[in-house]
Amino acid sequence: MGGTEGTGRPTHTQPRAATSFSPLPDLLDKVFMFPQETKDSHVLVRAKPEQLLQNFTGCLRSYTDLTRPYSLFSHATKAQDNEILLLKPKPGEYQLYVGGKFVSFGIPKNIAVSKHVCTSWESTTGIMGFWFNGKPWPHKGLLKGYTVGVEVAIVLGQEQDAFGGGFDTQQSFVGEMSVVYMWDMGISTSGVMEAMNNRPDKAPIFGWRNFPYQIVGKVYLKP
Question: Which Cys pairs are S-S linked (predicted)?
Answer without folding.
Answer: 59-118
